[in-house]
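Per reviewer request, we include the raw input and output of the structure prediction for the construct analysed in the revised manuscript.
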Amino acid sequence: MTTITIRDNGPLVIQGPLTVVDAAGNQFSIPTEKPTVALCRCGQSKVKPFCDGSHKACSFTAAERAPAAPAAS
């Protein structure tokens, strides 16, 4: 199973099997020994689409939350 965690003020962190491809269908190389991959959300990374921690220097802010589950009737 693949899980995507949205980090407050940071990247999307993906755990589990995945493939990352560009708009032309070319695959990015992801080291097989890495259990997680972090994708940039701030747009400032020098290794896009991957996160390099640039969000800290550019004061990126985002803290999305999933909607609460509806109460049982």
